[in-house]
Amino acid sequence: MNSTTSSSTIVGMNNPTNSLMEKLVRYLLDLSTLEYKLVMKKPSLVTAAAIYLARVQLGIRDVSEPLFEVPSRTTSSASSKSTVWSKTLEYYTGYDTWHLEDTVKLLHDLWANASTSEYPSMFDRHSSSGCKKVALRTVVNKDDLGFL
Description:
This protein is mainly α. The protein has helices spanning 7-10, 16-32, 36-39, 43-58, 87-93, 97-112, 121-125; strands at 62-64, 81-83. It has one domain (15-145): Orthogonal Bundle (Cyclin A, domain 1), CATH 1.10.472.10. The protein is built from seven helices and two strands. The protein has a two-stranded antiparallel ribbon. The termini are far apart.
C-alpha cells in the first residue's frame, strides 16, 4: 500500500452503499428507542436486526454455501445461493436468522408506521438530506424479509 492510499479506500468504506447502509441502520436504531418491546431486547440483537433489515432494503446479498447438500441426479454438489444473512454475519454477531426474525418484524412494523407515529421527530430528522432521506424510502414488503 502506498502512502497516498487510505485504508478506507482499500476496504471500500467510500462506497455510497456503505454510507446509505450506515444512515439506514442509524435510523432503524433511533426508531427502536421508541418501542418498549425493542428497548427490552439486547442491544446487540436490535443492532443485528437493523443490519438485516437494511440489507434487505438495499438488496445486499452474499453468496453462501447451502446448509446441507441435496442429492441430485444431474449434479454431484449442491449449488450456492444468495442470502441476506451470511454465515460470516452469523459468526460475528452470534445471531442466526431464526434469532433475528421477531426483532426484524418489530423493526419493520415500526419503520412502516414511522411517518404516522405520535412521535414524528425521528422520521423528520431522518427525512433530511444530511441523513440521505432514508426515512422517505419505500419500506420493503414484509413478505420480502425472508421469513415464512
